[in-house]
Amino acid sequence: MNADLEQRAQAFADAIGRAMPDDGLAQTAIPGLWLIRSSQPTEPLQVLHEPAVCIIAQGAKQVMLADRSYAYDPAKYLVVSVDLPLSGHVTQASEQVPYLCMRLDLDPVLLASVMMERGLDRARETGIGRGLLLSATEPELIDASTRLVRLLQAPGDIGFLAPLVVREIYYRLMLGEQGESIRRIAVAESRTQRISRSIVWIKTHYSQPFSVETLARQAGMSPSAFHQSFKAVTSMSPLQFQKQLRLQEARRLMIGKAIDAARAGFEVGYESASQFTREYRRLFGQPPARDVARFRERDAGALPIAANSML
Questions:
Q1: Which contiguous run of DSSP H or E holds residue 36?
Q2: Of 144, 176, 233, 253, most Cβ neighbours within 10 A?
């Protein structure tokens, strides 16, 4: 990271530090804006992450999507364009130099409005973008993000100025190196958006069986094209995606509602307890009872899955 970008990142970190003096994840007074702070590296956390841009001001993080790993820090920002089951952990943080990050949820309608107002071209349909993107952080994006966070110190200005700054951030994202993939989020009938609607359907009906042919028909695609596009966006097949959602929800039920593994597996759609235990261990590294006991001993203070994650 060059000296100019480092200086801007420090101003960004100072703004987050003033607004977020303690560790944790906080929803702010600005709609869609979240701040994250951690004074130490963390263990991997499995989450269902909604569409958002995550910009680190200080520290570093690693995210896993299926078998792919993505590392980012102030020199790179992360965009999640569709709902994705991810695993992430802070890799660089300390009491003196805590991990500081801003997350801004992405609204497809507002993205479309900015795209049309600024006369930006629609994304080409020659390909389909991945659901998780890393891009080099531009100085203008850091500056806009710093101004947005600083508004938290001036509550009376938020209503008028925050929407303008959010629009600027969207504009910067669509002009960046992954701009075409981000613009696909705003196009209602793009393949990315059709896959996104299928993901939402699976998310809503994760405990129910389904056929790829039915989802493909709903998306207006052939089964082969749908399967190929789904895997391009999510790095997994529709059935693998459903499996991750089921296992994450089962984990949430066991930790958050203190139900046993057999009942949790049944509630998320498993008919075989042995299959549930086997697949749970494959994803989380330990059988259900041992994994849940570890979280309770650690007194994590937050559920291992949440719509609004710390990524």
A1: strand 33-38
A2: 233
Write the pLDDT tens digit of every residue in 157-196: 999 999 999 999 999 999 888 788 888 887 767 788 889 9
What domains appear along the chain, each with residue ranges and CATH number?
Answer: 3-186 (2.60.120.280), 191-239 (1.10.10.60), 243-298 (1.10.10.60)
In the chain, which ranges are continuous DSSP H helix? 3-19, 108-117, 139-150, 155-175, 179-186, 191-204, 212-219, 223-234, 238-256, 261-267, 273-284, 288-298
Supply 46's token pair.
């499995």
- Strands 60-65, 68-72: parallel, antiparallel or unpaired by DSSP? antiparallel
Query: Has residue 34 got a pLDDT over 80?
Result: yes
pLDDT in tens, 88-137: 999 999 999 999 999 999 998 899 899 888 777 665 554 566 889 999 99
